[in-house]
Design a protein that fits this description.
Blueprint: E1 18-26, E2 30-33, H1 34-38, H2 45-52, E3 56-59, H3 66-81, E4 90-94, H4 105-113, E5 119-123, H5 129-142, E6 148-156, H6 166-169, E7 174-183, E8 189-197, E9 205-206, H7 218-222, E10 229-230, H8 232-254, E11 261-266, H9 271-281, H10 292-295, H11 302-312, E12 321-328, E13 332-339
Parallel strand pairs: 4-5, 4-6, 11-12
Antiparallel strand pairs: 1-7, 2-3, 6-7, 8-13, 9-10, 12-13
Helix pairs in contact: 3-4, 8-9
The structure holds oxa(dethia)-CoA (UT7).
Oxa(dethia)-CoA (UT7) binds near residues 236, 239 and 297.
């Protein structure tokens, strides 16, 4: 079908097309299986598989930080994009588990990859952060402020996991994904992006400790306040609503229908959430890209890793329309349609 942009607020403006010219990803070596977890808490492979779709996840080494994983993903993306790190104008790193509260983890990445000409900042939008990053990058590139932007989603959620809480510890894993964005002068690229938030729900997915409200003390750590707190059922419900609405919004802004989409890359949190979205959107389940079974929920890294795997495996091909849609604590949600 020929694309007919409908309500895209940008479509009437003469803006530069922003393309993803390279992707990369990295997951740590250590595998933690459902069987392993069933020896740590009262759970089973059967429960985890049927309720979530997760079979195993990766766990970073004690001395392997979010920035280390981000660097490996970034270098893969840089290599594929065939650019020098010195050409990068801006590094945006989405994470909920920065190396330190400050300076920004993006600054550690800058040093490690030698991107000496880049401005660096972290994005705090939980699992939705990578697409928030794509949107921010796109704004800077279309406005001619910057030419080349490195966007990274990286998280070490196992560093804030309560390993005695079976409601959460079975869900998460570590990893990083990255993309290089640039104006390439070709019509292929990001067609539209939509981001949104709802601060009403800050209390259903959060880490209470570690910030100014509840600083890290022995007492707070002993009460598990520096770990993830989640009301799973409510998050599930809100995730389906938010991702469905975000997906519809991006399709509408792009002037495309579900039939035009070759591949959907959704946030990798729960297979049942992905299937609910596919069914309600009316898109076949086999168009959903799934790697959750191997990595669990890697937060901001999840769709970035999935995008890289879809790209490198040939699951997405030049000219394909792809839809990415994510959801996270905040609440935050985001979606984008890209002509690959
Ligand atoms: O990145 C975004 C963040 N997160 C999400 O998107 C997660 C969204 N939520 C979910 O994916 C699901 O709500 C969960 C997978 C977290 C939980 O699945 P559920 O079907 O909503 O289960 P539930 O929380 O209602 O728990 C059902 C039962 C409970 O037992 P009782 O009270 O019925 O006896 C839980 O205690 O399952 C129990 N349970 C477990 N049993 C074995 C909870 N966790 C486990 C476990 N193993 N790991």
């Amino acid at each position: 079908m020929k694309r007919q942009p409908r309500s895209n607020p940008r479509s009437h403006k003469k803006l530069r097309t922003v393309s993803i010219i390279g992707t990369g990803s990295y997951v740590p070596e250590k595998v933690l299986t459902n069987e392993d977890l069933s020896r740590m808490v009262d759970t089973s492979d059967e429960w985890i598989t049927t309720r979530t779709g997760i079979k195993e996840r990766r766990v970073a080494a004690k001395d392997e930080y979010t920035s280390d994983m981000a660097v490996k993903a970034a270098l893969n993306a840089i290599e594929q994009a065939k650019i020098s790190p010195k050409e990068i104008d801006l590094i945006l790193l989405a994470t909920a588990t920065p190396d330190m509260l400050f300076p920004a983890t993006a600054c550690f990445v800058q040093k490690k990859i030698g991107a000496t000409n880049a401005a660096c900042l972290d994005i705090s939008a939980a699992c939705a952060g990578f697409i928030f990053g794509l949107e921010i990058a796109q704004q800077f590139i279309t406005s001619h402020t910057y030419d080349t932007v490195l966007v990274i989603g990286a998280d070490k959620l196992t560093s804030i996991t309560n390993w005695t809480d079976r409601n959460t510890c079975v869900l998460f894993g570590d990893g990083a994904g990255a993309a290089i964005l640039r104006h390439r002068g070709s019509p292929h690229g990001i067609i539209t992006t939509h981001i949104g938030s709802d601060g009403q729900y800050t209390n259903i997915l959060f880490m209470p400790g570690g910030g100014s409200r509840c600083p890290i003390t022995r007492e707070n750590a002993d009460m598990n306040l520096t770990t993830i707190h989640m009301t799973g059922k409510e998050v599930y419900k809100q995730a389906v609503i938010a991702m469905l609405n975000a997906a519809k919004k991006a399709l509408e802004q792009a002037g495309l229908s579900v039939e035009d989409i070759a591949c959907v890359i959704p946030h990798q949190a729960n297979l049942r959430i992905m299937e609910a979205i596919a069914d309600r959107l009316g898109i076949s389940r086999d168009k959903m890209f799934v790697n959750l079974d191997r990595y669990g929920n890697t937060s901001a890294a999840a769709v970035a890793i999935a995008l890289d795997e879809a790209n490198r495996s040939g699951r997405i091909k030049p000219g394909d329309y792809i839809l990415m849609v994510v959801f996270g604590g905040g609440l935050t949600w985001a979606s984008t349609v890209i002509e690959w």
